[in-house]
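User: Quick sanity check before I run a bigger batch. Here is a single chain. Can you write out its predicted 3D structure?
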Amino acid sequence: VHLCFDAPEDELVQTEVQQPALVATSLAVLAAIRKRGIKPDFVVGHSVGEFAALAAASALKVEDAIALVRERGLAMADAAKKNPGSMAAILGLDDEVVETLCRKILGVWPANYNCPGQIVISGEDHAVGECCEKAEREGAKRAIKLRVSGAFHSPLVARAADRLRPAIDKIDFAAPKAAFMSTVTAKVEEVQRYRTLLVDQLTAPVKFTQAARALIGSGVTVFVEVGPGNVLSGLLKRIDRSVKTFSVNDLKALDEVTEALRA
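Assistant: Done. Predicted structure follows.
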């Protein structure tokens, strides 16, 4: 509770603190949504949000989700200290252009496919800087360094995956009550794959754009964002303006989504 409501920003941006705080807040909102009788047909999460998504599908116990995310955060923080790096958002370029730049520059990789025209890169500091400069020369509107403590979703944090794997292997995942759309593969995945995917996602890019398009292609027209902020709702609107989105992060938003989905 202290971390979520009273911690200074400098503390909250530390990944070992930020990850449990985000997931704990999302799970608290999820509990409120469940009490209103709202149940998902599909679940999807962005990066660490996949743990909350699996909890929303009743495939992962709440206490296990929090414990795993705490270990994930510690593992990623330790990996980032031993193999430093950074991340940056490239705005206004096609994904293919950014991918080509990453292939040509040693030590940088695509990390988050957030929406058309917004892709995050991750890697060694000098390589990220070079990619930002070249992206702007290619016509990017902006290249923004992110306030993160490491080069997440890249091979630079591979040791974090090695540390997290034993903790994930101990977890008994249940069959999901809602289909789980992975942002590692952009496919609906079965319970037998969850352990592998939750380890792989540490070094793999987050394919949120591709996953959202796959859900829309499967007939999904309404998305409910569970947790702090409304970033994902904004991304979804940029992916497909026709979808309806709700961001549930306070009581007013909870009442609004309850009324809308019961109508």
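The mean pLDDT is 93.

User: Great, the batch can go ahead then.
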